[in-house]
């Protein structure tokens, strides 16, 4: 069982759900990043032997599925893949029944689905922690890895500016909320009509207070100027496949390319949650250039999720 005495703020996360970046405090987010860095550097070890993670993924995944599975293995625990194709979830067994049954077998559930409300329903019925592995609204595990990558590049994230260029989607929402908790200025640049949710924008600004700014702009150069991190994601998320052509037209001129990188701070890093479409939301040059930390970022999913699992499964 995990002992997290060096991270007092994480004690309150024991047994809790992680459905949104805003489900934890700024202090807890910082502690999760610090624990992740300590685990990555081998300064800390956690024992989750005997603990079992269940994965219910209703959408495709490479990074999240594999990084959660490997995270549990490295901590001494196990994972069971319960995706709808192999479980009764796909036959329509009610969430209320699935969540209560699985709570009798496994210790934590990581769920990827469409509606945030479905995730919340799992959390309502489950007596174990439920983790958001991506919904249409948020991708909070991704944001932890993203800010860990920024922290590695700059030593600390407080006061930095992260520019997200692209669709105001799930990834953007969690970057806004998590950035607000960490004191990062988050600037979202997007075409008109593709802005983040107004509710998430207001929530992020409330969390940020006077410490940092959360902005939305509609011009690419204004979005990236002077930023310390440039971030993008696909223009059509999972579930929006039929809008792909229409979105490619709407996002013309919004490719994160070398010209935009040149407008940022000279030390700026380039991030993308992946999977990426080179030549659409990001150029091959920006992706493979010397500023790119995209593959460190992908690796950091593993370390950030180890920290999260340790916190949720720690002794209260
Ligand atoms: N970034 C991310 O969540 O990737 P997957 O869809 O492959 O899990
Ligand atoms: N916004 C993307 C992220 C994929 C990791 C999607 O939801 O498909």
What does this 3D model show about the protein?
The model has no long low-confidence stretch (mean pLDDT 97). The protein has helices at residues 26-41, 63-74, 95-103, 116-125, 140-154, 170-182, 198-208, 220-224, 244-250, 258-263, 284-288, 294-312; strands at 52-57, 78-81, 108-112, 130-132, 161-165, 185-189, 214-217, 229-232, 269-272. α6 (170-182) links the parallel β5 and β6. Strands 7-6-5-8-9 form a 5-stranded parallel β-sheet. A 4-stranded parallel β-sheet has the order 2-1-3-4, with helices on both faces. The protein folds into 2 domains: 8-138 and 301-313, 3-Layer(aba) Sandwich (Rossmann fold), CATH 3.40.50; 143-297, Aspartate/ornithine carbamoyltransferase (Rossmann fold, 3-Layer(aba) Sandwich). By secondary structure, the chain is an alpha/beta fold. It is built from 12 helices and 9 strands. α1 packs across α5 (140-154). Norvaline binds next to α6.
- Provide the CATH topology of the largest domain: Rossmann fold
Rg from Cα: 19 Å
Average pLDDT score: 97
Q: Give unreliable regions as ranges.
A: none
Q: What's the structural domain tally?
A: 2
The distinct ligands, each listed once, are: phosphoric acid mono(formamide)ester, norvaline
CATH architecture assignment of the largest domain = 3-Layer(aba) Sandwich
β-strand amount: 5-15%
State the helical fraction: 40-55%
Biggest sheet record: 5 strands, parallel
**Helix and strand sequence:** HEHEHEHEHEHEHEHEHHEHH
The CATH homologous superfamily of the largest domain is called: Aspartate/ornithine carbamoyltransferase
């Amino acid at each position: 069982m995990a002992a997290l005495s060096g991270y007092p703020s994480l004690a309150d996360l024991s047994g809790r759900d992680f459905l949104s970046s805003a489900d934890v405090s700024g202090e807890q987010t910082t502690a999760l990043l610090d624990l992740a860095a300590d685990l990555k550097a081998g300064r800390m070890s956690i024992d989750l032997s005997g603990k079992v993670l269940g994965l219910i993924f209703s959408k495709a995944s490479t990074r999240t599925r594999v990084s959660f599975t490997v995270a549990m293995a490295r901590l001494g625990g196990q994972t069971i893949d319960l995706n709808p194709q192999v479980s009764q979830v796909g036959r329509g067994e009610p969430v209320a029944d699935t969540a209560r049954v699985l709570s009798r077998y496994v210790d934590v559930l990581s769920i990827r689905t469409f509606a945030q409300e479905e995730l919340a329903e799992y959390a309502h019925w489950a007596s174990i922690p439920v983790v958001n592995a991506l919904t249409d609204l948020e991708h909070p595990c991704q944001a932890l890895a993203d800010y860990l990558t920024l922290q590695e590049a700059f030593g600390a994230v407080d006061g930095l500016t992260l520019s997200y260029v692209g669709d105001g989607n799930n990834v953007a929402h969690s970057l806004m909320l998590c950035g607000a908790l960490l004191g990062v200025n988050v600037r979202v640049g997007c075409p008109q009509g593709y802005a983040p949710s107004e509710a998430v924008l207001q929530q992020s600004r409330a969390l940020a207070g006077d410490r940092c700014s959360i902005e939305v702009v509609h011009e690419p150069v204004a979005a990236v100027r002077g930023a310390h991190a440039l971030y993008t994601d696909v223009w059509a998320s999972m579930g929006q496949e039929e809008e792909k052509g229409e979105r490619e037209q709407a996002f013309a001129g919004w490719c994160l390319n070398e010209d935009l990188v040149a407008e940022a701070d000279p030390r700026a890093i380039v991030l993308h949650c992946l999977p990426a479409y080179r030549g659409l939301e990001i150029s091959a040059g920006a992706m493979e250039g010397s500023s790119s930390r995209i593959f460190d970022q992908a690796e950091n999913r593993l370390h950030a999720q180890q920290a999260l699992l340790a916190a949720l499964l720690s002794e209260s």
